[in-house]
Amino acid sequence: MVPFGKSKMYTALVLGVHQIPPQLYEAKAIHQIVDEEPLVNAIQFKHWQWIADYYMCSLGEVYRGAMPTAFLLESETILNFKRESVVDVAQLTDDEYLIFEALQNQSSIKLQDAEAILNKKRVFPVIQRLLQKNVLHLHEEVQERYKPKLVKYIRLHEVYMQQEQLMALLQDLKGNKQKEAILMYFQLQARERKPIAASVLKETAAVSDAVLKSLVEKGIFETYSIQEERVNFEDNQENYQIVLSTAQQAAFDDVNREFLSKDVVLLHGITGSGKTEIYIKLIEDTIAQGKQVLYLLPEIALTTQLVTRLTRYFGNKVSVFHSKYSNNERVEVWNNLLKQSENAQIVIGARSALFLPFSNLGLLLVDEEHEQTFKQQDPAPRYHARDAAIVLAQFHQAKTLLGSATPSLETYYNAKNNKYGLVTLAERFGKTPLPEVVLVDLKEAYFRKCMKGHFSVQLIDAIAEALALNEQVIVFQNRRGFAPVLECITCGHIPQCTNCNVSLTYHKFKNQLRCHYCGYTIAKPTSCHACSSSDLSTKGFGTEQIEMELTSLFPERKIKRMDQDTTRGKYSFEKLIDQFKNREIDILVGTQMLAKGLDFDNVSLVGILNADSLLYHPDFRAFERSFQMMTQVAGRAGRSEKQGKVIIQTYNPMHNTIQQVTHNSYTEMFKEQLYDRQIYKYPPFFRLIRLTLKHRDFDKLKESSLWLYQVLKQQIASPVLGPEEPAINKIRNEYIRTILIKIPAQQSVLSTKKTIQKVLDSFDSVAQYRPVKVTVNVDFY
Ligand SMILES: [Zn+2]
Ligand SMILES: [Zn+2]
Predict the structure, then answer these.
(1) Global pTM?
(2) Contact assessment for residue 278 and residue 286, using Cβ atoms and an 8 Å cutoff
């Protein structure tokens, strides 16, 4: 712990110790050593340094993102309102007033909050003036944020362990309840043969706190505390055998063979081919060698299903780590890894699990490796967990297995070029055929009036047929809300967000217009804000509207929606999944959440309402992603004996990507897209670095981004593009410009990054540009 200024305290990690005094400043004394044993090991430091270098951020930013916040001890400056002072509001500037106003509502705020309120980095001058004006006072506090969980246990005093004393005691005791408690204590002890928690005794003996308390006061019972783990998976290891099918066994053998010569192997197994069983066998072999396993998943929500399966097989050797865990829970998993305890041999987690203190990794699994969620966008470090996992594996001399039914283009390219091993599993488990894909031409369907709302008659009939057979249906629409646009028929006005340059999405259930970028909401207007006409109409459609249409088409059926709006609570996603699995829901409507590796055995039909909305995105990966998303959603159909059916509604049935999905032709998609990537200078042939500039002042931003662009263009030989205004050029009141740098794959990225950093440093030294925020995103896609 090191003091800064008069009273501010920071904690830091000791990276190295040396004896060379700094020349430009005087070194501070260390105030206190917080931990006796290091919290971080040498491999972690090496890995964090790699992340900082590769993704162009500071080691401190990696440290901040890597450690559970409970470890990031620091004193916090708290601003307190001075209740006794009389404030003349007229004397306050705008900024001062904003802080004053916030203090009216909250009585104390943190320094960071003040930064957020004023939307600036330098808030101290404002605070200083408020101090002078006697509006507030400051105070500092250092808090230990981790609190161990203590459980109270109870035991009989030594004296009464002797028969005579005990008999005498039982005779002396007046209260019947007290006697019962003591007798129950003996019963429990004989049965459980382990320490008895006070709460357990209280419950089984059905006595009150007061009874136990008086027994303790009399010196008959003693209490003591034991520190416990918050997350304890029940050791429900069963005699559970996994028998691989012939195809799975062959794939398992191939993976092991590839590992002999390659450090990274791609397992390309079609949807429903049973990749998880292969993973489990590989994990078993790894922990048998005394090594650790890290199993990365793209989505936290998927961990519940997986943990159940893994604990059945591996018992309590499994730990889970992700951001929905509380601070204290995360600290405990961290400590278990430090101690190399038995329950930390297999760690399942989302991308942040990469940062845990592993000491002896043998295998890293990255399931659904194509998923976008493996890439962290904000804040720094903006790392890609799959790529960072491969590097971490190198440091541990471990192996990495990437798994997907629809691999990312880059990974498949590496596999095809022998950089990675490639194992293909092209047979579904149980030999169920892949679902049949049927295309519905929307243009024709509308022309022939074969549409009811957004559903073609063909899709409605298929749904009715599936439901009649007691099978379940999934309907996919990758847009939430009711309608993306509310338009005035008279003047064409569309309500926009006041903070962002986007139209507001109509949410019918809450009768609101909402911004999906900043959360701004207004009540749905009854008349146009521009011309007062009451003739308003909606354009486009989202999941909410589809759910409503289905409810009127199938009023008897149970229909539920799964999107960001219905899965906000901690367990709401799991609840929906369970209900659907238990067949309490007939039709599930949802966004891309549905595409992510969920297994349902009774779904025979999947409907994709509007494939075109996926295809036409201003993104070089739009076709690849559309293919992946449609193939993954389609893969939810027909996963037990029966062949499933997928109906795709589209205006472009002959579009190459749609055809590739229909024929399940990953290699066709790969070839076509790879060709485009080469022509248009995209990955894997070029590496992309994107700089994003943000500022509230449009002109200042324009000028500074042009300056940055011109200097970069002079200094870098690779193509520099921009400065471009993105389609949404204003978010949360800040205007946005981007600059794109394309580096040929064979050229040194390192030297280009150094040049970029140098240019950014000189940008920062220009006084009028300094307030412009610049973020660097390496491999931003
Ligand atoms: Zn109007
Ligand atoms: Zn907004």
Answers:
(1) 0.80
(2) no
